[in-house]
Design a protein that fits this description.
Largest sheet: 2 strands, antiparallel
Number of strands: 2
GO cellular component, one term: plasma membrane
Structural class: mainly alpha
Pfam family, one: RGS
GO biological process, one term: intracellular protein localization
Protein name: RGS domain-containing protein
Radius of gyration: 29 Å
Distance between the termini: 86 Å
Number of helices: 16
Strand order of the largest sheet: 1-2
Helix content: 55-70%
Shape: elongated
InterPro entries: Cell_Polariz_PKAAnc (IPR052246), RGS (IPR016137), RGS_sf (IPR036305), RGS_subdomain_2 (IPR044926)
Order of helices and strands: HHHHHHHHHHHHHHHEEH
Length: about 375
Amino acid sequence: MSTPSPVPDGNRKRLPNLFEVLSKRTLAPVDLFSFYIYMRDTQRSVDYLDFWLDVSQHMALCRHYVRELRRSVLVGTPELEKSGSKRSSQVLETLPSDLHEPAGPSTYSTYPTEKPTQDQRLSAFLRTNSDSKKNSPSNSHDQGSQGATPESENPRPSFMTTNSNSPAADSNSPAHTVARADIRASAEKVLYTYLLPGSEREIILSQGILNDITRSIEEEGRDDPEVFDAAKDYVFQAMERDAFPGFLRAKALGNLVQPSMMVRLIVGMISMLGAFWTTFALIFLNYSRATRCWIILPFTVAIYLIASWQYMLDPILALAGASEYTFMDFYRIKEPFIRQLLNKRAIMCLGWIVIVDVATCCLFIFVPGKRL
């Protein structure tokens, strides 16, 4: 049974929260892809998001392993399922079956606090399964005969370039068989890539959390998802506090990226300088008011570009339903509430542009001229 994909909520009448973005329940421009680009280009801390994604992938790997194990029990002993015996119930109840919730921080559990979450039940099962394998006489033979898995040799494909059609990108693919060694390799990869001092993409965590994870994996031999719960919650809270508010300001209240805003500011200031130079030249050369109407063009361009920089919003693009992923790379706004919000801000921004433009142009067009 495959895990159902998260369905974006098109009826949301509010801004999304970070958990909804990470769970792929939102649409552009506040989707996970946009958040990844923001963390990479603006926050310069994409390693934290990659850590979250890798831990989530580790959770998906564990769920797939348990699903395959459950399916193998049913296929290998069909009489257990048919008989409905007490032994059948004991065999199947040890394997968690409700594995369809998106992975998230422990603070977002959908179960009451007194009940174990499905993630906790999954981790408990994997710990029990691991202990039973350690005590098995054939364990040493299995470990010696198993070679390095592809998961341990190759890093997780980048979120920006993963091919969704490949078996590696879809843990539910029938061709993608998960062994217990894959789970172990996945846990070690997360540890060695992000957590150990001097690692390739080291993230900053408290020493206590780091010591607990290192001891659990290297000394206790654990590889269940619960090992990373404390680190995952810490990273989630850090992104929610330091990065996500800026992401919402940039994507839900604006539709421009930083390079585009800087270009608009520079061009706007140059246009404003040219407009003032032209205006004073026409006034002090005593040109007619009809000729001075040409200053409307540079003033309009300057005020529009400077207002776009100030509001982080291009009102014409917003009304057309477009936003920027990266510099000069536009895409459609699909989140309904964000579309409404940007339309309101675009109309307000255009109103201020018209008011300031009309006032400025009238002032310099109707002022009496005097030839020096």
